[in-house]
Write a structure and sequence with these properties.
Elements: E1 2-7, H1 15-29, E2 34-38, H2 42-46, E3 50-52, H3 76-79, H4 81-93, E4 98-103, H5 105-121, E5 126-131, H6 148-169, E6 171-177, H7 184-193, E7 197-199, H8 207-216, E8 221-226, H9 233-247, E9 252-257, H10 269-287, E10 293-294, H11 309-312, H12 315-318, H13 325-334
Parallel strand pairs: 1-2, 1-4, 4-5, 5-10, 6-8, 6-9, 7-8
Antiparallel strand pairs: 2-3
Helix pairs in contact: 1-10, 4-5, 6-7
Length: 335
């Protein structure tokens, strides 16, 4: 059997653990299997850029951030049907029995399109997909994305640093968090760090109320702003400064953007374990001749049947577009 591994979209922590699990499970279970890493994501498939992977190639990468295979944006895949067909044809011509993918929503949509071409042409390759996204916006009804808890860990560390400075200077800090259209990373980071409030993307914010909360704080206030919220940090800063000035409140307002710091560094233990678990499950299923599918889990050892790729790619069925109400109430109760 011949297999390929691809990491798509962002370089979520835990992707290397996924690569390692697939390689080790395949080679330890069926040593004659050949395993190839696709260089630089979907672009590598379009241009047939691969490297052979053995067990030594994936030694010592469990906690390493990023992805040893690289991942580049490749918008042509979404926009050009000829590029899509080229990728599918290359998988067939290279005689890959399976393509293992760990990636975000863009990669999931791409995998679904390529899989449809493969099935229509009755070509051999089947695609097995695991969610890799710090935003936790890939089929989050069914499981948690690899990299999500690692990003929370990084956010928690930065939010504690910010608290030290905010407390020393009696400041209100407005802190931008990654998360694309989802507020999961911002909200869970805020809960873990004890932030005073998290502004969600589609929320009608009561800034007067938030200003009252800040004025009641003894020394520091941290308000996290989700990436997709339409107002910039500077616009929000101006709103608070106007309210404080009107009320005669002496409180300095500063801004910080955590952004790319949230996705770097070592993977969290829970992401390492779940990435390894999903890689193991997918490899074992491939050795048993499984069809294409989407794999996810809430915890290590969690087993649920794979979703068909076309179902997983329909986010209206598989994804919470916003934080569930009970989680919001939970966060507010702890404020």
């Amino acid at each position: 059997m011949k297999c390929a591994i691809l990491t798509g979209g962002g370089d979520s922590p835990g992707m290397n653990a996924f690569i390692r699990a697939v390689v080790r499970t395949l080679l330890n279970t069926r040593p004659e299997t050949s395993v190839w890493g696709v260089i630089d994501g979907w672009r590598g498939l379009a241009f047939n850029h691969y490297r052979r992977l053995g067990k030594r190639d994936v030694a010592g990468i469990l906690t390493t951030g990023g992805t040893i295979l690289g991942t580049l944006r490749f918008p042509e895949l979404k926009e050009d049907p000829e590029v899509q067909r080229t990728v599918a044809r290359n998988l067939h011509d290279e005689a890959f029995d399976y393509l293992f993918v760990c990636g975000g929503n863009g990669s999931l949509q791409a995998a679904n399109v390529i899989n449809q071409i493969l099935r229509k042409e009755q070509w051999r390759t089947r695609i097995l997909f695991a969610p890799g996204s710090i935003d936790n916006d890939v089929c989050n009804i069914y499981g948690t994305s690899i990299g999500f808890y690692s990003a929370i860990d990084k956010s928690l560390q930065m939010l504690e640093w910010i608290r030290d400075t905010a407390s020393s200077h009696r400041r209100l800090y407005l802190i931008r968090s990654m998360g694309r259209d989802s507020a999961f990373l911002a909200l869970f980071s805020g809960i873990a760090a004890g932030a005073e409030y998290v502004i969600r993307p589609n929320e009608q914010v009561d800034f007067e109320k938030l200003a009252t909360i800040a004025s009641q704080r003894d020394r520091d206030t941290r308000i996290i702003v989700s990436e997709a919220y339409p107002k910039s940090l500077e616009e929000i800063q101006a709103i608070f400064e106007e309210i404080f000035q009107r009320r005669g409140i002496q409180r300095e307002v500063r801004t910080v953007d955590m952004s790319y710091f949230q996705r770097g560094g070592k993977a969290a233990v829970t992401d390492i374990l779940r990435a390894s678990w999903l890689g193991y499950r997918m490899a074992k299923d491939a050795l048993s001749g499984a069809d294409s599918g989407f794999y996810t889990a809430f915890y290590t050892g969690h087993i649920q049947p794979p979703l068909p790729l076309e179902v997983a790619a329909d986010l209206s069925q598989t994804n919470h577009p916003d934080i569930p109400e009970e989680i919001i109430n939970f966060a507010l109760a702890l404020r």
